[in-house]
Structure formats: C-alpha cells, structure tokens
Amino acid sequence: MKKVTSIATESSGLPADDTVASSSPAKVTEQLVSVPLRTHTRPASASYFFAVVPDVDTESLLCHASETLASLSVMATDLARELEGPRRHVIVGIQQLSALGELLVNRALDNLEPPRGSSDVPSNCQR
Length: 127
Fold this sequence. Notes:
The protein has 4 helices and 2 strands, in the order βαβααα. By secondary structure, the chain is mostly helical.
C-alpha cells in the first residue's frame, strides 16, 4: 500500500490539494525545485543592506570606489600569501583585476579635473 503525503502550503508554496505518493521521490523533488525562491512582489533583501545616496557627486563616488578597490587588492594579496597552487593563482588574478579597476577609477578622477600639481589632490579623496 502506498502512503500519500500532503505537502504543506507554507513550506513549499504549492497548493494544499497537491499530494504526492511517497514512492516517487523524483516527482517530490521536481515539485519542490519548481517552487519560486523569491516572491516577485518584494525585492531581494540584499538590496536593503547597501545603498548609495542619490545626490553624491561623481568625484566622491570615484574616490570611494578607488579606496574600496585598493582595500580589496590588499586583502587579496594577504590571502594569496597564505595559499599555494591553483587557489593562489585565482586570488592573484582577483588582486590584479582589483588593481586594474583602481587604476581605471583613478584615471577617471584625473579626467574629471586634471591635476595641476601634487598639492591639488581633491580634499575628499586621498590618493
């Protein structure tokens, strides 16, 4: 005799009248995998963690991006020192990409207001 189990509506998002025989795990798996992981009415919760103030000037954004990329480069370099083999190569690649990103951001900053001298570095950005 086959046992019939009901899948709870709250846990799976399936209608309450859906029942599945316990002897067909492939069907149960298919139903559970097809359940949407997020509702389309509410944005992902990660979007609430970080936000950029809308009226921030471009120079400040680029300065913070440059500092973030520099920090990422330092962290990747420190991690690469602890690893060997293929994992080290991946981290070194990440470090190189972050260094390239930092160079690009710094060039964009230079293009916004070309430097007139070493003392004319913008006050809100320490490069």
